[in-house]
Amino acid sequence: MYSFRVCQCGAPLRRMEEPTPKPVGAEVLLKIKAAGVCHTDLHLWDGYYDLGSGRKLYMAERGVTLPLTMGHENVGEVVAAGPDAPNVSVGRMMLAYPWIGCGHCMVCEQGAENLCLKPRSLGVFTSGGYADYMLVPHPRYLFDIGDLPPERAAPLACSGITAYSALKKLGDAVQKQPVVMIGAGGVGLTCLAIHKALGGKAAIFVDIEESKRAAAIEAGAIAAIDGRAADALQQIRSATGGGAWAVIDFVGSTQTVELAVGALTKGGKLVVVGLFGGNVTIPTPHFALRAITLQGSYVGSLDDTRELVALARSGALPSAPVTTRSLSNVNEALSDLKSGAVVGRIVLTP
Ligand SMILES: [Zn+2]
Ligand SMILES: [Zn+2]
Fold this sequence. Notes:
This protein is of the alpha/beta class. The chain has 2 domains: 2-158 and 300-349, Alpha-Beta Complex (Quinone Oxidoreductase, Chain A, domain 1); 161-296, NAD(P)-binding Rossmann-like Domain (Rossmann fold, 3-Layer(aba) Sandwich). 27% of the residues lie in helices and 26% in strands. It has 12 helices and 18 strands. The chain has helices at residues 39-46, 106-109, 150-153, 159-168, 173-176, 186-197, 210-218, 232-239, 254-263, 285-289, 302-313, 330-338; strands at 2-6, 14-17, 28-37, 48-52, 55-58, 68-69, 73-81, 93-96, 133-136, 142-144, 179-182, 203-206, 223-225, 244-249, 264-272, 293-296, 322-326, 345-349. Strands 3, 7, 8, 9, 10, 17 and 18 form a 7-stranded mixed β-sheet that branches. Strands 13-12-11-14-15-16 form a 6-stranded parallel β-sheet, with helices on both faces. Helix 4 packs across helix 6 (186-197). The chain binds zinc ion (2 copies). One zinc ion is lined by residues 38, 40, 72, 158.
């Protein structure tokens, strides 16, 4: 088998060959058909998250080791399974849930493996799908995609469940009040598609890129506001009829979180998803006086994935923009994503 690996932070990924693994225990071997390229891959490639004020959270401190085969949005065909893997059908096209935990810690026991204290996430802590083959530890992490095209299903594993899980945290509000979504990149546009499929009332986008605002309007947003405009806050307030009840920030920079907190109405909720980096100062009396809620959301759970795959298979999800490229062009794909020149999702195919 071959894979493209990060051998040195920030340097081009290197193509490496090794024997194709044989699944043992309950493992399942997938032949990769589609692997999405995600912003998290850029952070893994750089080797750190920016914490603002010149501070960094290094991937090495989180237990990420090099060389690493990235790729956590994968669809593959089941080609082999270990002797202890139950109910596995060779030939099935499956989405692999990558946010695999230890299964034993306090958080895993609450059903949130994605928040595990000792994570084993595919493409982050263990080998992912920038390769022609990938091992998955157990069939419970695999979801049959039915008739969905692999390149459309792959982004459900991260971009999709990240958007879906963030929307779920807003509860019934999405049916009654417009949702403000900051960042019309791949995850933001996916969120808009899911929001529509779930009968969401309306979505208002904020993005600093003209082309991305246009993409959001084309996809059905009722308004798209330039986050760098001097009156961006007033524009959000007027578009939401006085203030936002629900905001999802897919960027997560100092500027976007400050804008989002300022835009909330009393009782409003901000869900922060993006990992751009930065920090904010919030006057503590605002929590009580404005009764605002700030919540973080990181990818999604196995249950979220099961629900989202069912929604996608039902045909209710309009397709979010996807462009496919050959896996051999992975370095170019990462560079394009880094420069912001990508609308929607890039999916690599071997
Ligand atoms: Zn991702
Ligand atoms: Zn755990």
